[in-house]
Amino acid sequence: MSDAPHQLPVAKPVLDEREVEAVRRVVLSGWVTQGPEVAAFEREFADFVGAAHACAVSNCTTALHLALKCVGVGAGDEVITVSHSFIATANAIRYCHALPVFVDIEAGGYNMDPDLVEAAITTRTKAILCVHQLGMPCDLRRIVEIGKRYAIPVIEDAACAAGSEILWQGQWERIGKPHGDIACFSFHPRKVVTTGDGGMLATANDEYDRKFRLWRQHSMSVPDTVRHGAKQVIFEGYPELGYNYRMTDLQAAIGREQLKRLAALVTRRRELAEQYTRCLSRIAGLQTPAEPVWARSNWQSYCVGLPGWLDQRNAMQALLDRGVSSRRGIMNIHLEQAYARSESHRAATTLGRSVTAQQTSVILPLFVQMTDADVALIAEELLSIAAVAKAAALPAL
Ligand SMILES: *Cc1c(COP(=O)(O)O)cnc(C)c1O
User: What is the pTM of this model?
Assistant: First the structure.
């Protein structure tokens, strides 16, 4: 990261000699693509989230593609999701030649409003793709209940949510058990743990898991790992269309080290988020993110809603001038040019809250190398920026 000495970035992965050593071991082993490290990472990840199966892939976008395909999403089908997400969420639906159907987000948060889902269901609805945005679990209990009632599978875009938890039938469980049918994770460096790029599909369904493993490797009937160790000549077949969505053993080795750190990383992120919320409560009208009683975020991102009199661009520029990087809140997919054509999506509701969220929210730096003093300083800067803006917004006397 090429930040100036005093520039605080928005995010920063935690990587050190442990990851270097892990990669070294793999390089010297001579087997660098999908192999024993991937298998071990999958077992360890499945244990961590409490899933029966975890299947590693190249990234979360490919995970979402396989998940949607697996529950039967195809040409002419509809998938209910949110526009207020990273573009990959809806792109994966379009890879299946299906139509993303957008519903708005909830009031006071950035996740799918469960009240809007039922009315968006049509005879073509093949899946609900909900997102745990910024690491904050969405209202899965209600979304899964709707999915069950209509026999529509629920896929969780858990790209940001490794280490997040949800209260499920009285027990705290990790996102990825999964509580829907399939949960998809990302290990991009912007997430809480990283493998450079990488993804994971978690499911309780044996048949789904078998398909993920087939499809990620060109639908090859006998994987190279098996042929490599075989005492007899084996010819593989390709019974159906597949993909190259593999994770490499180099990535998986890094992932295993990252996974060992994950619980501690989340603990520290939760402390930093709490401190932000305490410090920022002094800014009247600023909306700090809040966990519902049934959710524990991993705080992949800490996103605040600015009051009307505090302009987003001005506030972000003023922060940058003071050495603090920030990012605009989550994008809205339906506003992008790639979604401009009417065949590219359908809005099942007004998307007013989504649009407002994009225009008025700001993501503040949150990474475990930060100190409590950094958080206090950022809050102080924002307080002074807000004070100046508020004074300017008052009618001249
Ligand atoms: C990061 C992200 C993705 C994409 O993950 P990749 O691993 O980069 O493909 C998908 N959905 C959401 C909500 C994300 O934040």
Answer: 0.96
| Judgement on whether residues 96 and 217 belong to the same structural domain of the protein | yes
Q: Is residue 60 in contact with ligand 1, taking CB distance under 6 Å?
A: yes
Other C-beta atoms closer than 10 Å to the C-beta of 383 total 14
Cis-peptide, bond into residue 178, ω within 30° of zero: yes
Q: Any residues with CB less than 8 A from the CB of 153 and at least 6 apart, and which?
A: 71, 126, 127, 128, 147, 180, 181, 182
Same-domain pairing of 76 and 94: yes
Structurally, how many domains does the chain consist of?
2
Query: Both 340 and 298 in a single domain?
Result: yes
Question: Tens digits of per-residue pLDDT, 87-130?
Answer: 999 999 999 999 999 999 999 999 999 999 999 999 999 999 99
Say yes or no: 254 and 293 in one domain: no
Q: Which atom of ligand 1 is nearest to the CA of 62?
A: 9
Closest approach atom of ligand 1 to CA 160: 15
Kindly state if the Cβ of 301 falls inside 6 Å of ligand 1.
Answer: no
- Does residue 55 sit within a domain? yes
Residue 279, domain extent: 263-393
9 inside domain: no
What is the Å distance from ligand 1's center to 242 Cα? 22
Work out the angle between the directed axes of helices 206-215 and 60-70 (0-180°, nearest 10): 120
| C-alpha of 190 from chain center | 9
Residue 189 falls inside a structural domain: yes
Q: Is the CB of 193 under 6 A from ligand 1?
A: no
Any idea what DSSP says for residue 163?
Answer: T
**Ligand 1 neighbourhood includes 41 CB (under 6 angstroms):** no
Summarised one tens digit per residue, pLDDT across range 217-241 is: 999 998 888 888 889 998 999 999 9
Cβ–ligand 1 contact at 156 (below 6 Å): no
d(CA 292, CA 353): 18
By three-state DSSP, how is residue 294 classified? coil
Does 365 contact ligand 1 (Cβ within 6 A)?
A: no
CATH number of 319's domain: 3.90.1150.10
